[in-house]
Amino acid sequence: MKRRSLLLAFLAADTALGGDSRPVIATFGDSLSAGFGAEPGRSYPDYLQKLLDSKGYRYRVMNQGVSGDTTTDGVERIGEVLAAKPAVVILELGGNDGLRGLPVSGTKANLEKLIVDLQKSGAKVVLAGITLPRNYGTTYIQSFDRIYTDLAKQYKLTLIPFLLQGVAMSGPGLMQRDGIHPTADGNEKVAATVFRYLAPVLKK
After folding, report:
1. How far apart are CA 143 and CA 64, in angstroms?
2. Is the distance from CB of 106 to CB of 130 less than 8 angstroms?
3. Distances (CA, A) of 185 to 34, 54, 100, 192
4. Are strands 158-160 and 60-65 parallel, antiparallel or unpaired?
């Protein structure tokens, strides 16, 4: 984690000294943002950068996904995200909380804290929803899913209802064998989904 903090400090310094001055879009999440299991350069944030460039949006995507992170981990490293002074944050956390069966109330409270801190910094927040395998039970899944819809409504956020829309359970080629993480091709489709919800938030 110290290496990551140093890297972000160097990136911020580079921008301040006249490097890449484009506004930052931070993809703040877990392994789904980090691109776990996909080849380097083929995470969804990588594909999102290419989409933005091709469509004339002058933003720099900063991948701040850390595999295995829960919402508690997100709260602990929110300072790293704020240090990048993002104009927009795509907040994608909670999936690992759900897979571990953690109390929904705690997950919601953590996400709410992150949203409040990000909005106070002036960043626009796009909330990426996720759901759980059906074997987690209807009651738990419904309560978990409501976290995202409730918070988006309360804080007037752009909500991506399901980050893996059109990718999860879509047959071979888009998901890795674990059934949780997209392949590189799947990440490209995830980026297209994210861009569809993100574009109205951006300035061209």
Report:
1. 27
2. no
3. 15, 18, 27, 11
4. unpaired
Domains of the chain: 2-199 (3.40.50.1110)
Which of 14, 20, 31, 145 is labelled catalytic?
A: 31
Catalytic entry in 43, 46, 69, 181: 181
Nearest to 163 by CA among 64, 54, 28: 28
Model pTM score: 0.90
Active site (annotated) includes residue 181: yes
Per-residue pLDDT tens over the stretch 143-195: 999 999 999 999 999 999 999 999 998 767 999 999 999 999 999 999 999 99
Let me know if 14 is a catalytic residue: no
Q: Is 31 a catalytic residue?
A: yes
